[in-house]
Amino acid sequence: MANLRDLGLSEYEARAYRALLDDSPSTAKELSRSSDVPMGRVYDVLKDLEQRGLVRSQAASRPKKYVAVEPEAALDRLLEAKRDELAEQESQYESAVNELEADLEAGVPTEEGFWTAVVGPEESADLLIERLDTADERVIAVAGGPTPQFDVGEYGDEVAAAFQRALERGAEVSVLLGPDLISTLPATVLERYESELADHPGFEVRTTDRVTGSFHLIDGVEACIEVPNPLTPREPFAMLDLKDREFSADVRETFDPRWDEAELLTAGE
Predict the structure, then answer these.
(1) First to last CA, the chain
(2) Cis-peptide, bond into residue 63, ω within 30° of zero
(3) Cα Rg for the chain, rounded, in angstroms?
(4) Domains of the chain as residue ranges with CATH
(5) pLDDT tens per residue across span 194-244
């Protein structure tokens, strides 16, 4: 069950505020008795509550008396204070991330010839998005048959967003699709690519019947190869990530002539 401590009040502050709601106005001495806040602490507690805007005092009275601010206003102020606190923390975390990115990027790059693999739809999607977000020069995306990378749904949206981020970093994005995939794509998928990405000069989609399988080539040195689920082809079974310049060059040699002969694809086709 939620309580005032969840919004940043101490135990004594929460007790004092609740007691004032039940019995206002009250003097500090009266509040100490009704709230079980020690007399030696009650003045500090009341001062903090006033600073938070949860309590008002009647300074002209002797002894000074206190009343609680209405709960709706008090809770709004506590919530706003928490939001400000979280925003400040977010800003601090972002600054730390920016500093660490510059520091960590200066480290030794992953040795070529390294490969890794994950199994499962979510894990495959996470690995692909992670690797796409490292692209600085060019992303080549090839899909010969049904794949969730170019479909309606969260995975397809994440891939499109990763392409968008790559374009914003100055990378080119070249997408080559097979006719079997084109024939099964919902119209909304191509419309999404047309409306969100087509205006970028570095983005282009082409189609050819000389393509099979699904993979991404990143900056000419890294390949992400999708292994589809044999029972449900639109769901990835696994993803293999291989960082190997020689292998990637071999893939480019196969890809380039097929890209050159492929037809430009637009949403209206």
Answers:
(1) 57
(2) yes
(3) 30
(4) 1-107 (1.10.10.10), 114-264 (3.30.870.10)
(5) 777 878 899 998 999 888 888 999 999 999 998 877 777 667 788 999 999
